[in-house]
């Protein structure tokens, strides 16, 4: 007889997720971050875990304990699958999960439009000095308006680091500006790049030639620390750095030095090493920085779409089918064995077949 699966979550981006799951034979339990005893009791019996974002867990004491770390994996022997809320999955230790026979999924796709639009918004804000002009107008006296002279996007060179769903959509959004688009992404081939109208280049060439550098890549072992002092030093003094990726992809201290030293013109930041960033973060004191608190993917539409994708993916998982956004397919054989052992049925999909 199949056991009733238990799913633990911290919050849904939209109530529609709860509505969808209410129609399924799944025991859904809310994780209370500020009640660790109850939280661990729920997790230790859970078969699925919808992991909270790093920013969300920061509101609780020792919030990092709720991330899918090796410690959490070891403490939850019945756990079969963990999923992140969005495309990023740095809140999950994929290797630890794979070793334990746990499937790891993300939710790439539903939030791409929102993040890409935000990335474009930061680029326009910096180029047209919108936030700088707003500050000048509010603090007054205004002084010489020519000091707020910006630049146009038309015909400039855009460098995109990471041509996934977000980077690809950003390229499309920038098409009306007739920008030359350079891309660094070792997982994209030349044929695909030509089809999208972009040019694949090495990272060094991208930073040297671009007027706007956009980081839209995930945080992985390969991308951690990808952008540091050497890359900032190679950028044009008139260039702007924008990131909607993850904070640890770039070196914050090196970025600060580049900004105060005039080696780059400005930065647009939606992500930080520590989230939310401390109010004394030196980057927040700079007039040539436009900053937002990791809200690029937070729109009404994206929240709804992510919630639907999240709920339907959990339905797929507990129905014994391969989830559409499985990040560690190599785990499948062991996962199937554990699924049978823990829930009493074997997944219906064959290994490697979606």
Automatic annotation (TrEMBL):
Residue span, D-isomer specific 2-hydroxyacid dehydrogenase catalytic domain: 69-328
SUPFAM superfamilies registered for this protein in UniProt: Formate/glycerate dehydrogenase catalytic domain-like (SSF52283), NAD(P)-binding Rossmann-fold domains (SSF51735)
Keywords tagged on the record: Amino-acid biosynthesis, NAD, Oxidoreductase
Gene Ontology BP, a term: amino acid biosynthetic process
InterPro entries referenced in this protein's UniProt entry, alphabetically: D-2-hydroxyacid_DH, D-isomer_2_OHA_DH_cat_dom, D-isomer_DH_CS1, D-isomer_DH_NAD-bd, NAD(P)-bd_dom_sf
Domain of life (superkingdom): Bacteria
PROSITE patterns according to UniProt: D_2_HYDROXYACID_DH_1 (PS00065)
MF GO annotations: NAD binding; oxidoreductase activity, acting on the CH-OH group of donors, NAD or NADP as acceptor
CDD domains: PGDH_4
Record-annotated D-isomer specific 2-hydroxyacid dehydrogenase NAD-binding domain positions: 120-296
Family to which this protein belongs: Belongs to the D-isomer specific 2-hydroxyacid dehydrogenase family.
The name this protein goes by in its record: 3-phosphoglycerate dehydrogenase
Lineage, top ranks: Bacteria, Bacillati, Actinomycetota, Actinomycetes, Mycobacteriales
